[in-house]
Amino acid sequence: MNSDFKLNSELEQRAASCLMDVLIRAGLVLGLVLLCYQILSPFVSLMVWALIMAVTMYPLHQYLAAHLGDRQGLAAALLVIIAMALIVTPVAVLMNSLGESVQALVQKVQAGQIAVPPPYPGVEDWPIIGKRIHAFWQNAYVDLPSAIAGMRPQIADLLKSTLNAVAGIGGGLLMFIAAFGVAGIIMSYGRGGDRASRAIFDRIVGRARGAEFVVLTTATIRAVAQGVIGVAFIQAIAIGLALLVAGVPWASALAALMLVLGIAQVPAAIITLPAIIWIWAWSGQGTGAAIAYTLLLIVAGMVDNVLKPLMLGRGVDAPMPVILLGALGGMGTGGILGMFVGAVVLALGYQIFMHWVENNPDNTPVKPDHEPETTG
User: How far apart are CA 209 and CA 61, in angstroms?
Assistant: First the structure.
């Protein structure tokens, strides 16, 4: 009995010692992970954006490298310069033009150089809001400074929101510029990154599924990028044509602005609503034509609602609703960046779940021990 008691006591002590070692090691690993995250947290968004851009542009990068004697660094540098010229430069020009226009408008208002035309007679007959708009318009026509003074709190809130939005866009532009540079570095070492990502997935899900998960991740990122940028381009063309048909001034400039806003996932109403107001108030169109052009702009503004579900899931080994739900859910929780992350995570989760369902041990057919004898 004493020997058995001593043996059990020694086993308990060893088990407790082993458990303590495991807990200490796990605590040290957890502390190291938290410390690494704290150090890298200011750069997480930048690195994720750079990785998304690198994955999206990598096929084009390889195409350029093949025509440049397989010089990966030169191809990445050229691609980054071209991308910044095509995306960042127009955005910077538009933002500069917007700032100058706002500044000029403020100076004219302060100098009293803005002349408001008299309200059109038909404005008062608009349903619900017609009388209020007509009264404010008439007051602005008679005495613009007093009309502006009466709305000073609302104007102050609007200016504050506008300045915050402009500052946010400026910060996002700077992050995009930095992300393009980091994406070029990632593409320069793309082959090593491909091997590293395959090794990581092999370690996580096994070699049988690692390569499949790498392909799924890259395809999902590219599908979301094409679904956002491609849909924004098509929607900008549709709205531009609708503005041209309706005779709205500066239709091409508004279409270019719509392209930028569509990529940023800003609703098309930012462009279509002022255009519709212009059609009803200043275009001189009849009621029937105004209604037709309004419906045309509304339909053009809803193009993304139809095309996004069709383009987000192309080339991805996962159902389109899974990609769409992941993108929309991620965008609701994390903005544009969350749209990519949500789509990838949900697609990977779907693949893992379906792999678990397909590998049900109960579905494995059982072979008989002996083959049945046949008579010839």
Answer: 27
- My answer on whether 58 and 153 are in the same domain is yes
Name the token pair of 19: 């458990």
Query: DSSP letters of 192-243?
Result: HHHHHHHHHHHHHH-HHHHHHHHHHHHHHHHHHHHHHHHHHHHHHHHHHHHH
DSSP 3-state percent helix, strand, coil across the chain (nearest 5): 85, 0, 15
200 is a domain residue: no
Domain match, 168 and 284 both:
no
Contact 232, 259 (CB under 8 A): yes
Domain that holds residue 333: 206-355
**C-alpha separations of 108 from 32, 97, 112, 113, 243 in Å:** 59, 16, 6, 5, 28
Rg over alpha carbons for the chain, rounded to the nearest Å, is 30
Residue 304 C-alpha from the chain's centroid: 13
CA distance 349 to 207: 18
Segment-wise mean pLDDT, segments of 10 residues, the chain, 376 residues: 65 81 91 91 83 84 88 88 74 60 64 66 70 74 64 66 63 75 88 84 79 80 74 83 82 75 76 88 80 89 78 65 76 70 78 76 57 48
Residue type (1 letter), 180: F
Residue 184 burial by CB count (10 A; 0-12/13-18/19+): exposed, middle or buried?
Answer: buried
Contact 367, 244 (CB under 8 A): no
**Local structure of residue 314 (DSSP, 8 states):** T
Q: In the structure encoding, which two tokens stand for residue 347, read together?
A: 């697609």
DSSP state of 125: G
Provide the greatest CA pair distance for the chain.
111
| In a shared domain, residues 217 and 182 | no
Q: Do 262 and 146 reside in the same domain of the chain?
A: no
Q: CA 258, CA 99: separation in Å to the nearest integer? A: 17
Phi/psi of residue 117, nearest 5 degrees: -70, 160
Taking the mean position of all CA atoms in its chain, how far away is CA 83? 17
Same domain, 225 and 122: no
Residue 328 lies in a domain: yes
